[in-house]
Each structure stands twice: as C-alpha cells, then as structure tokens.
Amino acid sequence: xxxxxxxxxxxxxxxxxxxxxxxxxxxxxxxxxxxxxxxxxxxxxxxxxxxxxxxxxxxxxxxxxxxxxxxxxxxxxxxxxxxxxxxxxxxxxxxxxxxxxxxxxxxxxxxxxxxxxxxxxxxxxxxxxxxxxxxxxxxxxxxxxxxxxxxxxxxxxxxxxxxxxxxxxxxxxxxxxxxxxxxxxxxxxxxxxxxxxxxxxxxxxxxxxxxxxxxxxxxxxxxxxxxxxxxxxxxxxxxxxxxxxxxxxxxxxxxxxxxxxxxxxxxxxxxxxxxxxxxxxxxxxxxxxxxxxxxxxxxxxxxxxxxxxxxxxxx
Length: 315
Known about the structure:
Number of helices: 14
CATH superfamily of the largest domain: Spore Coat Polysaccharide Biosynthesis Protein SpsA, Chain A
Oligomer: single chain
Distance between the termini: 57 Å
C-alpha cells in the first residue's frame, strides 16, 4: 500500500484560536482516494492557537507541526511548510477559513493529474461576511467575476485578475524549481500568493474549477483587513519592495515605474480602513495624504459626508 501523501495541505496560522479547530476539522473530514498530510505552520502567536495545533498533531498521524523556532512572517512560514512537505501537490488551508466541500482534495488532485500543463488550480468559494453572518455562495459564479486562466502574468501585474489564493493547489515540483525560496523567506514578503502566481504562471497555466470548495471569511482582523493604520502603510511599502524584486526576475517586463503608486496606496487603504472603523478623525487625516483622490477621499472632508458615504456603502 502506498502511504506517501499525494497531497500536502499547508495550514499557516497566527493568533487564530477562534477559528483553527473548524479549519482543521474541515480538512480532516475530507473524503479522498489519495493519502494526504497536513502541515501546520503555527507562527508563534500569543493566544492559544499553538496548543490546539499541538493537540491535533498528537491525535492524528497525518498531521504534523512544521519545524521552526521563531516567528517567520506569513511568507516565510508558508514557504517553510512547503519545503517540509512530501506531496506531489500542495493545497492551502488558511487557519481562519474552512473547507465546505468534503471532496476538495479529490477534485483538485484529479484535476491536476489530468492537466499536466496546469501549475496551479483554484476553485470557486463561498464568502462569509463575519460581521453580518451572511454567506455569498459560489462567489465567482454568482458575481460573474471569475479568475483569468492561462499564463496570466499580464493580468496579475495590471490587477485585472480575480484569484482567491486561499483555494490554491500548486504543483510542488514546479514551485521548488522556479520559486527562489531563500529570497522569499529573507525578504519577508507581506503576502505569499501574488508573487508565487507571478512566477509560476511564467512556466505553466493557472486553471479555474467552477465548484465551491472553501469558505473565505471577510470582516475579521487579518493581514489584509486590519485596524492598525500604520501597519497598512508599512504593508504597502513592503509590497513595493516585493514588486521591485519581482521585476528583477523578469527583465522583459521593463523598468519598475510603479513606485509612486505604492507610495500612495497605503494612505488610500488606511482611509478605507477608517471608514470601516467609523473613525472620522483618521479618515480626514489619510484623505489629506491621498494623492490620487477618489470619491472616498472627497467624502472624508466633512463629518456629514463621511457619515453619508458609510451609509451609502452599508446599503
């Protein structure tokens, strides 16, 4: 009997005590013909997440903790887990999301096996709006906003792609061959999915499977949704450094000219976070710093228009 896992499920988590059990239970409930392993990258958070992960690793033979002795950041943690994986494919399983389809592994593994030119597959997903308790099922198919397929570097660079990185299934051999893992870890990229896609889709296709397999949470504190305005601005600068680095890998893209965009986008995202937090003082501050004004910028000029904009967005 072949016991080597075909699939390695990578679960990176940090301070997600509230969600991690549901995430792990949904992965372990998978119905598959393939052996799979679960590698948990608990990044030395400050809550009870690590104790829960250790409990699962002790209980289930196919679950193990990644070997690390310090906080590595999101990209370092993720890459470190993939380097320790044994599977032919890796599937992402974020610690604050959960899988809604017991056939997720089977669906994506079968698809990857049948499509050797595919280096990464993604699926449709449900969106859970945490604050409202509402779920938008089959988000891509319902909204009509589907991922662009193929070798999509241009779409990724211009922001016209619509890929949910939380549903990734990656051909691990291609990842190890083309991803500069040491650089990814050393430079501490603020996100792992976008730079990985930019590199992998130079060497194969991204393909979309129109079946919902996971539920993506929106509204909770996270890397991309935080109430720490300075953290948002720092992230934009790290995005700038990451993109500049990626341009050095692909000279055919031409010179990197998006510095001013990244210098401003942190202020714009901080402004949007201030709207979410009903924080007029912060909104007014970051609207003044936003050099590329939008309707959100103008509406932050007075308390009344600020409230009106929030009300309109709420409707």
